[in-house]
Design brief:
The chain is an alpha+beta fold. It is built from 2 helices and 9 strands, in the order ααβββββββββ. The strands form 2 sheets. Strands 1, 3, 5, 6, 8 and 9 form a 6-stranded mixed beta sheet that branches.
Length: 160
């Protein structure tokens, strides 16, 4: 005769569950950086792109992998919270890198007819660094987000 074991929580399962929960708490959370914490190299480029306005943190979502095996092709997505109407829309999205030989990665021009303020692309990165996305709105305000990317094999090297 085969006896079915009742569904009870064993000590082993409870310990594994507890360790899993503790592990989740120990994972460092990526916090949004303030505009004051930007790398010095990027501050003048951002001011130039925004017309002298220092961007506020918020409204922009920058999605990059936390770890990229190769800097040759890193997925990037920038989404801006905007109704995209003639009265309120995104004019431009700028993407900057901290350590690339050319720190201005991309510039996208949008308008109210774009439908939504979202761009997807792939970028090249010269090693582990901070990537910053800045959105310039039609009312002159600017918003930003940043993300740290760990690159194991760099792509953009000076002189290549």
């Amino acid at each position: 005769m085969i006896y079915a074991r009742p569904n009870r929580l064993s000590r082993r399962r409870a310990l594994v569950g507890l360790l899993g929960c503790l592990g989740c708490l120990l994972v460092p959370l990526r916090k949004a950086r303030s505009a004051d914490a930007l790398p010095e190299k990027l501050a003048p480029l951002i001011r130039q792109a925004t017309g002298g306005v220092m961007p506020q943190v918020g409204r922009v979502t920058l999605t990059l992998p936390a770890l990229a095996e190769s800097g040759h092709s890193v997925r990037l997505r920038v989404r801006v919270e905007s109704p995209m109407t003639p009265q309120a829309h995104v004019r431009q999205i700028h993407v900057f890198s901290e350590k690339n030989p050319r720190p201005v990665i991309a510039r996208f021009s949008l308008g109210p007819r774009a439908g939504r303020a979202e761009v997807h692309t792939r970028i090249r990165l010269a090693g582990t660094q901070q990537v910053v996305a800045v959105a310039v709105m039609n009312d002159g305000t600017a918003w930003m987000a940043s993300a740290e990317v760990v690159v194991t094999a760099a792509a953009c090297v000076e002189g290549s």
